[in-house]
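ugh ok fine here u go
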Amino acid sequence: MFVFVCAGCGTELTTPLSQVALPVHARQKYGNGVQLPVLMEAGTFAVDPDPWGGPWRTWEELEPGEAEARGIYAPVHALSDRAPGAGVIAPGDVRGTRLMPERLGGACCGLDGGDGPNMACEGCGLPVATRIDDCSLWQAVRLDAEAVHRLPVDGGRAASSSWAELVAQGERTPPFEAIATWGGQLGTSHYWSWSPRWEAAAGHALAHLLVASEGQPVEVPDGLTADVFRPALDALLPAGAPERRAVLAGPGQPPPDAGVDILLVPVHPRTGQAWAPAHPTGSVHLVPLPLGVWLWLVSPRPDPPVPASGHLPLWVLRDDPLPPLPHGPLRADRGTFQHTLVRLPAVRSPWLSTILEKLTHGAWSRLF
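structure:
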C-alpha cells in the first residue's frame, strides 16, 4: 500500500492505495457527449508508462531516434513532452488538494486537462495533479510524476490473486451496456450499445492479432469472438484459406491443439502480466485481453429463456422482454488500436505501415 505526497511540502494527497495494471481503455475517447464512469476502482492506482498532456511536439519536431527511444516505431501526429509515470487514481481517493480556477480550461461538459495540471497542493500551492471528467472521457485524476512522491504505508502488502482465484471470482465484463449522454431535452438520456471497455479491448487485441498474423489470414473461434474480430481481420488481411489459427486459452481451459499459432489470453488485473502456458513454444503468439472480457468470451452468460414455439395469449402480459442489443456490429476503438500498434516494433514492416497510414487518412471507418 502507498500514499502519494506533495514533492514540495510532503502533504498527503491520497488515501492508501494498492497498485494495479493500467486499464487498456485509460486513454479512450468514446463517442460524443457521453458520460463515462470512473476509470479506476476506489483504493487503487496505476502507473501510466507514457507521457500525457501538453506541451506537445509534432512528429516533425522530434530529434532522429527520439521516438524509437521512447518506444514508438511509427509516425504519430504529436507526442507529449510531459514526464512519464503519472499515477492514475479515482477522484474520490484524492486528499489535500484544491482545484485551480485559472486552469479549468474551456472543455465541453467538464475538465479535460487541456491547460495542464488543474489541482494544487493545499499545503504549498504546487500544481500536483490533473482532474479529468469531461464528456466522452473516463473520469480520473492523474498525479504529476515530477510533483508527487509515492511512499509505502503500514497495512501489509496487497495480495495478488492467483489465476485460479480470479477465474473463481468470475468478474466478467458484459459486452453490452446502457450509455449515458449529456444534453438531452429532458436531461440525461441513455442508449444501448457495445461496452466502451469491449471496444477498447478489441482495439488493443486487434493490434497484437495483426502482428501475430504476420500478414496471413487468421481463423478465430466462432461465436462472440468472431463477432468481435473477424470483420476487421477479413478487411485488413488478405483473402484465402486461413494460414494461422487463434484460440482462446488460459487458466482452466484445455491445452490448445497442435497447429494453433495464436493464443487469446487474459491479463492479470493487478500485475498486468499476460497468462502464458506452462510449456510455451517460440512459435505461439500471445494476444492479451482484459480478464473480464476474456472470461465472458470463454463462458458467456446465456440469454433469458424465451418460449420455444407458439404465441402467448393476448391477455397475458410479458415481464421478461428480450435483452436489448446494439444497432450495429462492434467497432474496435481506433485510438486504442493506433496507440498500441505504433508501440509494437513489428509496425515497421511495410504491410503494417500501409494499414496504419490508410487508417490515418480515414480508411476502414466502418471497422473503427
